[in-house]
Design a protein that fits this description.
Oligomer: single chain
Distance between the termini: 70 Å
CATH topology of the largest domain: Pseudouridine synthase
Structural class: alpha+beta
Helix content: 10-25%
Number of domains: 3
Radius of gyration: 23 Å
Number of helices: 7
Number of strands: 16
Largest sheet: 10 strands, mixed
Shape: elongated
């Protein structure tokens, strides 16, 4: 019999979901079978998978030695292969903007992906978090981003450092309690100084790598973006953008629909590449703190390339 005393890192999870992460080599059907038979217990008693865990509970596992060996060496699991041995290039390292016990907000440079799976083995924010060893870690939890930015987008990303922090941030994004303000340099100058793009967006399943992944389509989901022209050039303009919905590629698709694609965003109609990817920057992020409920407001200046591109 193997016993684990739970900490705050496990608190709040359902027992069955905790077991799925802890016993990640065991088929799901086998986990539920052992739950029913009483081989997986809480405080010495047979437990239902829906039980919410609290710190101090003791989980008992009556399992074969091979399965217990996996538990004994368990570490926070990530998608894909291990990626903590290689270092992130200095030009892609994030900059800290805000940090407390539960929440980290960083400034992400363009070119750094938020999650694994972009074809660049180590150039993502999750790898950087693993290397920094920040926040609470257990066999079933590691600090993680609560939302995403495209790899070519720079700016603010909020990260949950504790289970409570990540749950609270994720809920805030899901419930539209987060204010997100972006800056973008676009081709051309909108005729109106201010406006709203209220157009439904549909994700294309057949899009090639250089084709729009998202298009304006009546069959899509409602999406709304407010824009304001901050600076006018002869060929480009700097826009301030406020998101009222959080659709995939929303700003990129909406600005292309407006006839003013983002400079460097070749997928959505830009005719020229840019050394810094495309010129879209998450400049402001305001959200309720997961523990106190007090607003956290973060501001991040765009890269110098934005000012140089408005001409």
């Amino acid at each position: 019999m193997h016993e684990i005393t739970l900490t705050e890192a496990e608190a709040g999870q359902r027992f069955d979901r905790y077991l799925r992460k802890l016993l990640h080599t065991m088929p799901l059907a086998a986990i539920f079978k052992r739950l029913r038979s009483g081989d997986l217990r809480i405080d010495g008693k047979k437990a239902d998978g829906s039980v919410r865990l609290t710190a101090g509970m003791k989980v008992q596992l009556r399992l074969p030695e091979a399965d217990l060996a996996v538990v004994a060496t368990a570490a926070p699991r990530r998608g894909g292969a291990a990626h903590t041995t290689m270092r992130i290039p200095s030009e892609l390292k994030p900059r800290l903007v805000h940090k407390d016990d539960d929440v980290l907000v960083i400034s992400k440079p363009p070119g750094l992906a938020v999650q694994p799976g972009t074809g660049r083995e180590n150039e993502h924010l999750v790898a950087w978090l693993d290397q920094q060893r920040l926040g609470t870690r257990s066999a079933t939890f590691a600090p993680s981003p609560a939302h995403r930015l495209d790899r070519g987008t720079s700016g603010l990303v909020a990260i949950g450092l504790t289970p409570e922090g990540l749950r609270g941030l994720t809920a805030a994004f899901r419930d539209d309690l987060v204010q997100k303000i972006y800056l973008a340099v676009v081709h051309g100058v909108p005729a109106e100084a201010k406006g709203t793009i209220d157009a439904p967006l549909l994700v294309r399943t057949d899009a090639g790598k250089k084709e729009p992944k998202v298009v304006v389509d009546a069959a899509g989901k409602a999406a709304r973006t407010d824009y304001e022209v901050l600076q006018r050039g002869r060929k480009t303009a700097l826009l301030r953008l406020v998101l009222h919905t959080g659709r995939t590629h929303q700003i990129r698709a909406h600005l292309a629909h407006l006839g003013h694609p983002i400079v460097g965003d070749e997928r959505y109609g830009s005719k020229a590449s840019h050394d810094d990817g495309f010129l879209l920057h998450a400049a402001e992020l305001t959200f309720p703190h997961p523990r106190s409920g007090e607003p956290v407001h973060c501001i991040d200046e765009p890269p110098e390339s934005f000012a140089a591109a408005v001409r």
